[in-house]
Amino acid sequence: MVRKKMEGDEDQRRTWAREAERVGERPSGRGTTTGASKQRTHVSHRSSLTHEEKIEPLERGKQRSEQQDVAAAREADRPEPPVGRTFTGRGRPEYGPEHEQVFQALGDAERRHGGEAVYAQEVARTAGLSDERTRVLLHDLVSVHRLATELQGTDRPDLGPRYETKPGR
């Protein structure tokens, strides 16, 4: 007679059986044996089962629970994004005096470089603002107000994004 297939090797099954007995349960009640008690419920003909009833046993496997545990641990270990570097939840900021200052500095820096795109650090120096604040304002000019363009991967080696004003602006 062919034995039922079960996830885990013999050492794992023995460990599970010991744990069940330690807490006062029977290993067959927990579904950690290879005997007939592995079938938790009577299964009627498959054609009469709903989709949920058909996929329910798939959620009980050892690999599924281990994958969920690993995914939860990865999510817990994921670091928070650095402050000032995320643009989510900001909505659509109005065009204000700081935007004007950065846009003017971008145009001035471009003229000094003969119309070529410039790095955010140079725009920050020209505008007299911090690098981080300038990056936020440049992001607004690029994605919200559409007055500038961000160029990425244009240098070898890549030294970060460069910015330029859009033609005709």
Salient structural properties:
three-stranded antiparallel beta sheet, 3 strands, mainly alpha, 7 helices, 169 residues, 6% strand
Concise overview:
By secondary structure, the chain is mainly alpha-helical.
Give a description of the structure.
The structure is a single chain. The chain is mostly helical and 169 residues long. Strands 1-3-2 form a three-stranded antiparallel β-sheet. 12% of the residues are buried. The model has no long low-confidence stretch (mean pLDDT 78).
How would the blueprint of this fold be written?
Layout: H1 10-22, H2 27-30, H3 51-55, H4 62-77, H5 97-112, E1 118-119, H6 120-127, H7 131-144, E2 148-151, E3 162-165
Antiparallel strand pairs: 1-3, 2-3
Tell me the overall shape. Answer: elongated
Mean pLDDT: 78
Strand order of the largest sheet: 1-3-2
Strand content: 5-15%
Largest sheet: 3 strands, antiparallel
What is the straight-line distance between the termini?
82 Å
Number of strands: 3
Spans of at least 5 consecutive residues with low confidence:
none
Radius of gyration: 31 Å
* Helix-residue proportion: 40-55%
What's the total helix number? 7
The assigned structural class equals: mainly alpha
Q: How would you spell out the order of helices and strands? A: HHHHHEHHEE
